[in-house]
């Protein structure tokens, strides 16, 4: 599933459209965090690394499910 809860009202479904980060996996020890940012009045999902990552590091974050 490529679902991301934006807020209590909206869910983003990236199954058919999205970028490569839609494939970021869940981890109990993630290297990044997902944040919802407001850009030009629209909600956007950002995946932000906690530190500089070595090339080839898998990007993971906590899905909170």
TrEMBL record:
InterPro entries: EZH1/2-like (IPR045318), SET_dom (IPR001214), SET_dom_sf (IPR046341). GO terms for biological process: heterochromatin formation. Residues 2-63 form the SET domain. SUPFAM superfamilies: SET domain (SSF82199). Pfam families: SET (PF00856). GO terms for cellular component: nucleus. Keywords: Transcription, Transcription regulation. One of its GO terms (molecular function) is histone H3K27 methyltransferase activity. PANTHER family: HISTONE-LYSINE N-METHYLTRANSFERASE E(Z). This is SET domain-containing protein.
